[in-house]
Amino acid sequence: MVDTNQILAIIVSGNLNRMIAAIVVLLIAFLIARFLGNLTSKVLSSLNTNKILKESFGVHAPVEAIIGKGVFYLILFIGVIMALNQLGLSTIILYIILTIILIIAISFIILAIKDFIPNVFASFWIYQKKIIEIGDQIEFKDISGKVIEITITETRVETEDKEIVLIPNSL
Description:
Layout: H1 4-46, H2 49-57, H3 63-86, H4 91-113, H5 116-129, E1 137-140, E2 143-150, E3 154-159, E4 164-168
Antiparallel strand pairs: 1-2, 2-3, 3-4
Helix pairs in contact: 1-3
């Protein structure tokens, strides 16, 4: 007759080994992700990426930190997939999870840049054709004033009341 304690010990020991392997994979992935994320941020910082984007295009976003965190989460995600694989999840489930996450990420990116891209193209057109320049007096809809700055996404106009109005370049 089979002893239930022996069967339980075999089942637990096999799953315990998988669980320990998955935890080790996650810890290694976390350490590598943290190292490479910080390294990416430092390399971009040494190249003065934020300063260049701010001066050239008027972008006031912490691009160095955003890309560094992106690298961190990408490597961490790969580590989670590898850990799930250690636990014995089938590859089909992993591919389904990956596909869903990619679809969500792409949707967020598309929604985030849907207004940005037309403004960027319009700003290049404004610069190339010199339609308006800094110091020009313009009138747009019910706003009239002097152009004080043209950035990659918007034009800043100072009205006669000394108010600053931001007009998207795509308009």
